[in-house]
Amino acid sequence: MDLKEYEKIKFELAEQLRTLERLAGQGRATIDDQIRALFAKLAEDRFNLVVVGRFNRGKTSLMNALLGTDRLPTGILPLTSVITTVAYGNPERVLIRYEGRRTESEVSLSDLPDYITQQRNPGNVRRVKVAEVQLPQEILRRGFHFVDTPGLGSHIAENTQTTERFLPQADAFVVVTSYESPVSEEELAVLRAASASFRRVFVVLNKHDTVSDGERESVQLYVREHLREVFGDDGPAVYSVSALDGIEARRSGDVAGLGASGISALESALTDFMIDEKRTVFLLGMCERITDLAASLPDGPQLGAFLESVSTKEAQIRKSNRRPGNLALVSFQPALRRPDYCEICRKIQTATFERLASFQHELATSLEVQKQYAQQRGLCRMHMRQYASLASPHDVCVGSAPLIEGFSADLAELARTIDRSDDRKSPPACLSVSRDHCTLCLSAAHAEMQAVSTLVHDLVGGGDGAVKHLSLICIPHIARVLPALREERLAQAFLVHEAALLDRLAEDMRRYATKHDAIRRYLASQEEQDASETALAVLAGLPNGHVSDGWS
Fold first, then answer.
1. Does residue 205 come out as left (phi exceeding 0), alpha (psi in the -120 to 50 range) or beta?
2. Using an 8 Å Cβ cutoff, are 351 and 444 in contact?
3. pTM of the full structure
4. Which residues partner with 146 through β-bridges?
5. CATH fold for domain 46-261
6. Which one has a higher pLDDT value, 418 or 317?
7. Which backbone phi and psi does 130 adopt, to 5 degrees?
8. What is the C-alpha separation between 400 and 406, in angstroms, rounded?
9. Who contacts 310 (Cβ-Cβ below 8 Å, separation ≥6)?
């Protein structure tokens, strides 16, 4: 089981809760509060990883290395007594929450030092409670929530107090020390508090790039002796890392370098712990709660089948094991970029709007265009509405009067020639407007052909690299692009990329649905809030961005 599979099981449990709601029927009111509470547990589920240590240990650099980014500001000393959390968000932003205020402010990441540093916010005069950094990194999207605490042992007494007050909210601690002066008294105090709370502790010795192999060994032995004094013989493992080397290895895609930096081993341990703990405690606990709620309902064949399905899910969770290989490296990869709407649809929209803007002016000023417009029986209904939203009443009256006069003449002629024996099951030809004659439909069809041709040309010329930069193409236009990709490898790369974007969209949809059911919509990221609109655009194309299959 990896982070993605774990989340998939959560989605399945949410679906079982919805099934339980349907089974409860009229008796739902008796268990509705309990169902809503379980939805809330699923929606709020995240793993608080609290990073603590003395100032200048490289805590923020370590977080950058784990996240695969260099966006968190480093080298800012000393920090004020402000907790900085790192959660998922796309686009990147920072939310500042204040003491005693319900409102929050949004700032750019470059402005973060104005709120968390002693130099720019001395003594925390701004009364900042938490600065939440939101980054589009996959590990955060999968449920990790990093908490960067103020450095221990600085001359600002409030720093240590703020960090100590936050410790009870931790699911696990990453205690960061360094080779230059390992395990300070303040760090030992945190280790003792963590030991008493029975929370998991990961001890990180940072900056191993600054010492020799022999010095590493002696310092690690020294740290383990201190850990044995606190935890006994069952103390936490010590991870020797170079956060700076890890950041560089991430940037260059150097897998061997990432391993040598020690970051790979640390992130594997973090993922193992999160999955093992969540599987045994959280997921199995959810199954037990769902079973208890279902047992309170009247017996019946449907309820029996439901209980059996929950039992099967529980057995699956108990048996699931991690697949061979370093799944942490997979789970900690940077997120796919947020999928834009179909670029083919957007090009059609742009071309159609430009043609409409030009056409409405021509129709108001050219007798020849008015004549052709009347002969072609105007525009199709969709484009007629768009024209009406753009043109002024004066321009509509000038440009469309000949069209209305033409319909008047057609109806008069029809009245003279109509035959009582006609069954009139289909409308007369003079009253129907074909897309074949709508000038804007013709323009959209031409734009679609050009957009598809350009995309295919770019893919063929750019290969796999070009595929990685594609937007989320709508299903109708995937059907148009695929036959034009003659090379099998390129077609496969195209399909794999689009499948990954669709899978990501489906996850956002399920997350939003779970948070909605839990009455926790405020927890939804912007991607999750946009998921329904994106899904409809994927299925049907953007409005005025998809041309019927009849066009070639």
1. beta
2. yes
3. 0.80
4. 49, 86
5. Rossmann fold (3.40.50)
6. 317
7. -145, 140
8. 10
9. 16, 287, 290, 291, 294
Are 49 and 59 a contacting pair, CB within 8 Å? no
Longest dimension (CA), the chain: 107
| Dist CA 260 CA 249 (whole Å) | 9
Q: Please name the amino acid found at residue 199.
A: R
H/E segment holding residue 421: none
Alpha carbons 459 and 465: distance in angstroms, whole number: 8
Counting every residue written for the chain, the total comes to 552
Q: What are 8's two structure tokens?
A: 């998939």
Q: List the domain boundaries for the chain.
A: 3-43+272-331, 46-261, 337-418+427-552
Preceding omega of 427 cis (within 30 degrees of 0): no
Residue with tokens 């050009």: 450
Q: How many CB atoms lie within 10 A of CB 481?
A: 20
Question: Between the CA of residue 362 and those of 397, 433, 442, what are the distances in Å?
Answer: 13, 20, 17
Distance CA 519, CA 433 (A): 48
**Cis peptide bond prior to 476, omega within 30° of 0:** no
Quick: pLDDT tens for 467-503. 988 999 999 999 999 999 999 999 999 999 999 999 9
